[in-house]
Structure formats: C-alpha cells, structure tokens
C-alpha cells in the first residue's frame, strides 16, 4: 500500500484536493471490504450476497462517474495549465479505459454472486492492483495542482444537492472527524444541510452491507487500517 498524501493541506485547510482524495480513500476502502467479504460467500455464507451485489453496482457507478468527471473536467483543466503533465494525464486516461472492462466483468460476476463469488473476488483483486497504481500516480502528479482550489461550486439544482450529499456521505466513511469538519466548512450550505441525514443513511447501509468490517479515522487517502498492515 503506497504512502498517500494528507487529505488536508499543509496549513490544515481543506481544498478540492481533499474532496478528490476522500473519494480515492473510498475506492480503496470498498475494494478492501469486498476482498474481505467475498471469501465468506465463497465458503457458503450467502447472508450478505444480495447486499454485496447491490453495493458493487453502486461502486461501479461511482467509479465510472468519477472517471468521467476527470476525463471531461479535471484532466483537461490541469493539462491546459501544465503541459509537462501531458504524458501522465494520457496514461491516467488510458487507465480508465483499462478499468472499464474489469467493471463489466464484475457486473457479470456479482449478478450471479452465489455461483461466481470466486470470479468476483478475482476481479476485485485485479481491479485493486490496477486502481491503486492509478490513484498513486494521480496523487503524485495531479493532486498538488488542485491544493489551492478551496471553493466548492454550488449545485445548480436540488437533484445535484442530493447527489453531492450522498457522494460526500459515502466518501466520509472512515475519515477522521477533524478532516470532515474542515471539508464541511468548505462546502455550500445547501449541501451541508443535507449531510447529517445522508451520513446517517449511509451508516445504516454500511452495517447492512459490511457488518463489523473496519472503519477507521484516516488522515490520508489510504484507509488507516490498511496502511497499518
């Protein structure tokens, strides 16, 4: 597991880098949780099989949406300002195309998780290896250039407000309280007003899907319970 950059800036402030790195934490966290849960299904415990299949769909949609946002927004913006990153960004974009087929393979396996838990576990292992290298490259080369961005754009519609609240609730799981306090102070009031309810709903979902798997209180984009291994 790589050494990840801090979620907060050196001066202790939150930025758009914080929001991005929290999503990286969430992807690493959930893949590790799938890796813990799937062997149990393979051993015959199907009590959470349906919940795991539903959670995989959410994971797929979240990761695919994250990559689309980068391809259409973040990466072109950074590349336009920092020509020296052209090759790095081209490689990151190519990684997205390599990840897509793995997500599709995961869809097929999780749709029949009772019979294909072994295949699902193999997909999770391959995806974790590819994604971790991808995230580490992004953190080393792209994240430093968004540390100065400390304003979150206000959502344009109520639907966007709900989308952001749900997304930040997912990304908040396992993050240290002091980081969440700084993040919340950066977010638009329309979003923070929805966050308590969204986080409470996510906490119920986490218990339903993952049970007593580790949560932690991370200060970096690597879950602290993984970094400690």
Characterise the protein shown here.
The structure is a single chain. The protein has 229 residues and is mostly helical. The chain folds into two domains: 14-150; 153-211. Helices cover 72% and strands 0% of the residues. It is built from nine helices and no strands. The chain has helices at residues 16-42, 49-81, 86-111, 113-141, 158-172, 177-186, 189-192, 195-210, 224-227. The longest helix is centred in the N-terminal third of the chain and has 33 residues, at 49-81. The model has no long low-confidence stretch (mean pLDDT 95).
C-alpha termini separation: 9 Å
Radius of gyration: 17 Å
Number of distinct helices? 9
Q: How many separate domains?
A: 2
From the spread of the alpha carbons, the general shape counts as globular
Query: Main beta sheet, described?
Result: none
